[in-house]
Design a protein that fits this description.
This protein is α+β, with helices and mostly antiparallel strands and 181 residues long. It has four helices and twelve strands; from the N terminus they run H-E-E-E-E-E-H-E-E-H-E-E-E-H-E-E. The chain is globular and about 40 Å long.
C-alpha cells in the first residue's frame, strides 16, 4: 500500500469517547445523490446493514478540512447513537462488503477492537482493489472491551494520499449494560 503514514493516521485518528474510540466522518452535502452507488454493508451473523458513506466529496479525495470535520462529526454521531448499529455476540461472524465501483477504486476496513499487540485495532480487510467482500471474522477477535466497537470502511486508491469515502458502523455487544459511548 502506497498511502503515506500521515494519511493513514488521519483515517485512523481516534477520539476517545467514554471507553470507545472512533475514526472519521463527514456529513453528506445536501442534495448530493452520487453517493447512492457507494454503499458498504456490515454483516453480523445472519443480519446485514447497508449504509451510505458518512464522508463523501462527490468522488474526489477528501480535503484536510473535510477530514477534520469528519473527526468532529464522527464523535458526535457516536455520542448521539446515530451510527448504523448492529448487536453482536462473541460467537457471531463479522464481515464487510462494498459496491463493485468502490472495490474498483480500492478499499480497506478495520475496527477499533483487537488485542493490544495489534495496537487495539483489528484489520477486517487490507487495502486492495477488486474484491467486494472482506470475508467473515470471529466477533471475539474484532471487538473491544467497551461493549461498543466501531467498524471503519475506507474507499481510497492506494496511490492517493486521501480517502474518497468513509463509512462507519457500530457493533454493540449484547448483554453489555453500558448505554454511554
Amino acid at each position: 500500500m502506497s498511502l503515506n503514514s500521515r494519511a493513514i493516521a488521519a483515517l485512523g485518528a481516534v477520539v476517545v469517547v467514554g471507553a470507545a474510540t472512533v475514526g472519521t466522518s463527514v456529513a453528506i452535502a445536501a442534495g448530493q445523490t452520487e453517493h447512492i452507488s457507494h454503499r458498504a454493508t456490515l454483516t453480523v451473523g445472519n443480519s446485514s446493514i447497508v449504509a451510505d458513506p458518512l464522508c463523501w466529496n462527490a468522488g474526489s479525495p477528501l480535503t484536510d478540512d473535510q477530514q477534520q470535520k469528519c473527526q468532529e462529526d464522527a464523535t458526535k454521531a457516536l455520542r448521539d447513537g446515530t451510527l448504523p448499529t448492529s448487536d453482536v455476540v462473541g460467537s457471531d461472524r463479522v464481515g464487510v462488503g462494498v459496491s463493485p465501483n468502490v472495490a474498483d477504486t480500492g478499499w480497506w476496513a478495520f475496527t477499533n477492537g483487537g488485542s493490544s499487540n495489534q495496537g487495539g485495532r483489528y484489520t477486517l480487510f487490507s487495502a486492495a482493489k477488486g474484491p467486494t467482500w472482506s470475508g467473515a471474522q470471529s466477533a471475539n477477535k474484532v471487538l473491544n472491551s467497551s461493549g461498543k466497537t466501531v467498524v471503519t470502511v475506507v474507499e481510497g486508491d492506494p496511490n492517493q494520499e486521501a480517502p474518497i469515502a468513509v463509512w462507519y458502523f457500530q457493533l454493540k455487544t449484547e448483554g453489555n449494560s453500558s448505554d454511554n459511548g
